[in-house]
């Protein structure tokens, strides 16, 4: 599902499970986490995450076939997306995302936890939990709030439509948008620049930024209230309908219950 390579201290993780649209299931996420760890152990000073060139879908997001049964939290701490995000945040070297095609659902959060994002022209981001009726959790929301202006994020969540990379670049969410034929070389040039800088300084900088931006000042009462609200959502008819509709490839009919 993932090819790993290391050259000139630049590690590369290539998502190759394109037959299944690189869905973020347990198997792919485990290979991603292990690949990051191996590249760092082998001396990588920066890692690029990408997929095969020319694909229409970078990742279709969370593997809905691995969602827990109705009535269980779909975003509990050990589910694939949460594990992948934690691994990226804990990775001591900068991570570059090389995007091409469309990014959907939970894969959007993975992208937003990269340190630098480079996208091909015409790429799109689709943040779609509201299509499924998924109650996103505070840590996931923080991943987006740390990168995306609030009103833009609200529109992305409420509308669940494709947002062009070019628009997100205007807000600094994506660092660069380049022609697709220049994407690989452009991203590699950035990675090679990073290999010429001090790795220890980069590591401690990333650690501090991650700690500061992940600080959520919630009281115990607020946390319990949020969890109760989320529980009501993932136990609802709407959540069951959203997941069922996606599997049946039809539009959901939500009833607010």
Automatic annotation (TrEMBL):
<dbReference type="GO" id="GO:0016829">
    <property type="term" value="F:lyase activity"/>
</dbReference>
<dbReference type="GO" id="GO:0006635">
    <property type="term" value="P:fatty acid beta-oxidation"/>
</dbReference>
<dbReference type="InterPro" id="IPR029045">
    <property type="entry name" value="ClpP/crotonase-like_dom_sf"/>
</dbReference>
<comment type="similarity">
    <text>Belongs to the enoyl-CoA hydratase/isomerase family.</text>
</comment>
<dbReference type="InterPro" id="IPR014748">
    <property type="entry name" value="Enoyl-CoA_hydra_C"/>
</dbReference>
<dbReference type="Pfam" id="PF00378">
    <property type="entry name" value="ECH_1"/>
</dbReference>
<protein>
    <submittedName>
        <fullName>Methylmalonyl-CoA decarboxylase</fullName>
    </submittedName>
</protein>
<dbReference type="InterPro" id="IPR001753">
    <property type="entry name" value="Enoyl-CoA_hydra/iso"/>
</dbReference>
<keyword id="KW-0456">Lyase</keyword>
């Amino acid at each position: 599902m993932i090819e790993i390579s290391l050259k000139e201290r630049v590690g590369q993780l290539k998502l190759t499970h394109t037959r299944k649209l690189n869905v973020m299931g347990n198997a792919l996420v485990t290979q991603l986490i292990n690949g990051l760890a191996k590249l760092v152990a082998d001396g990588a000073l920066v890692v690029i995450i990408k997929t095969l060139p020319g694909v229409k879908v970078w990742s279709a997001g969370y593997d809905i076939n691995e969602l827990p049964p109705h009535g269980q939290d779909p975003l509990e701490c050990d589910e694939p997306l949460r594990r992948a995000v934690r691994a990226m945040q804990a990775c001591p070297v900068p991570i570059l995302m090389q995007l091409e095609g469309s990014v959907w659902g939970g894969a959007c959060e993975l992208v937003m936890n990269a340190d630098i994002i480079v996208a091909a022209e015409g790429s799109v981001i689709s943040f779609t939990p509201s299509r499924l009726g998924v109650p996103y959790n505070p840590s996931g929301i923080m991943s987006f709030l740390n990168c995306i202006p609030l009103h833009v994020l609200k529109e992305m969540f409420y509308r669940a439509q494709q947002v062009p990379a070019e628009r997100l670049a205007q807000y600094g969410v994506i660092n660069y948008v380049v022609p697709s034929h220049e994407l690989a070389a452009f991203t590699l040039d950035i990675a090679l620049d990073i290999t010429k800088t001090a790795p220890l300084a980069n590591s401690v900088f990333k650690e501090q930024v991650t700690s500061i931006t992940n600080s959520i000042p919630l009281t115990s009462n607020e946390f319990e209230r949020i969890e109760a609200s989320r529980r009501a959502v993932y136990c609802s008819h709407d959540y069951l309908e959203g997941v069922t509709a996606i599997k049946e490839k039809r539009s959901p009919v939500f009833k607010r219950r």
